[in-house]
Design brief:
alpha/beta
């Protein structure tokens, strides 16, 4: 089907899977870009070497460089130290480099928002790609309103991160949610296949459009009206996103639109450019 990137992601921790070594080795034999998203707590020296030898980029979920905040957000005491140990194993294996990219994935929330400019610089100074994104209100996040930050606070944060990049690192970008410094374009080319075979447009729009244990992936993709709409978002998107000046490079977060508005084509409900935003 022409897949160019295979990403092993979590909804849970992929390195806890009993067959993960075999999965990594298998994907490593394919002529595609390879990414692993991990919470970092299970990375050993052996795991880091396996990822390196299989050609994987690694993205570690790191929400804070403050131990008690990271532990609180992870819901696990000692997670900060385990993540740091995992990162050291990756450094020792040769990450990051041109052939071995390393990133950190950080969810922007009330508990960490004040330290995010320093975390951004910590990553940049080590050639680690910072991947800072807004919360998608699904799963346990729906019951934790104490995580929420306002659209105004998001705007200030994104502007601050842009100023850091322009002044210190000679990078420039247009600030808009859901991801700082990047645009989410996954709906033009991306699919998620869960561990039990269900196919979804992305981790945020968790609508099951079929199951690869029952039908061929190609047939599922061809028949899905949901995917057809998302593949043609520029003509389908609604509200403020449809009229936005950044429409050519951004369509907001479809996951947020789906979980808050019940419509994956609705305008991003927390974007500061949306006059009908909710926070």
């Amino acid at each position: 089907m022409g897949a160019k990137v295979i990403s092993v992601i979590g909804g849970g921790e992929p390195l806890a899977h009993k067959d993960i070594s075999a999965i990594i080795k298998y994907i490593g034999t394919k002529p595609v870009k390879k990414n692993l998203f991990t919470n970092g707590t299970l990375i050993t020296g052996e795991t880091a070497a396996l990822l390196k030898n299989s050609g994987f980029a690694v993205i570690v979920k790191c929400n804070s460089r403050t131990p008690h905040i990271q532990d609180h957000l992870a819901g696990l005491k000692g997670s900060f130290e385990k993540i740091q140990k995992g990162m050291r194993h990756l450094f020792n294996a040769g990450y990051p480099s041109a052939k071995l990219p390393l990133g950190i994935e950080t969810i922007i929330c009330r508990q960490n928002i004040k330290e995010l400019p320093s975390l951004w610089q910590w990553a940049r100074e080590r050639r680690i790609m910072p991947y800072f994104e807004t919360i998608t209100f699904q799963g346990r996040a729906r019951n934790h309103h104490d995580l929420n930050v306002s659209s105004k606070e998001l705007r200030v944060l994104f502007k601050t991160l842009l100023e850091i990049d322009e002044k210190k690192y000679n990078f420039t970008w247009h600030p808009h949610p859901p991801i700082a410094g990047l645009s989410c374009n996954r709906h033009f080319y991306n699919l998620v296949v869960t561990s039990n075979g269900y196919v979804r447009p992305c981790v945020g729009v968790n609508i099951s459009i079929g199951n690869v244990r029952h039908d061929a992936l190609k047939d599922i993709v061809s028949a899905s009206d949901v995917l057809k709409s998302l593949r043609h978002l520029k003509g389908k998107i609604k509200g403020a996103c449809r009229k936005c000046s950044y429409r050519d490079e951004c369509y907001g977060c479809r996951g947020l639109a789906y979980h808050i508005c019940g419509d994956y084509l609705a305008a991003d409900p927390i974007c500061w450019r949306n006059p009908r935003r909710i926070i």
